[in-house]
Amino acid sequence: MTKYLISFPSGAMDVSAEDLPAVSDASHAVVEEARRAGVWVFGGGIDESVPPVLVDGDGTVTEGTYPQTRQIEGGYTVLEVPSRAEALEWAAKIAVACRCAQEVREFQLDPAS
Question: What mean pLDDT is predicted for residues 68-80?
């Protein structure tokens, strides 16, 4: 089984305040479906009110982040499924619920993890 990251940036989700409860209900329904199917690993949204920090090997904490990851925000789901095709099917369900396209990335297999 392979783990997949399914995600979207905050700006992609253009939903009115009145539609937000329906989007929330629909996304929670997909989460429950994935849990029942046994493919749910983890999901959630980045708390954009908390700034990122970098932690060095000596424990030094520096405010900020790597330049290429400055825009990491939005919603993330990790599923473990037997095929890329199935990951794409779940991404389509999430896209319908969240009303925006989803990016799919595959985690490399690490036998030690």
Answer: 84
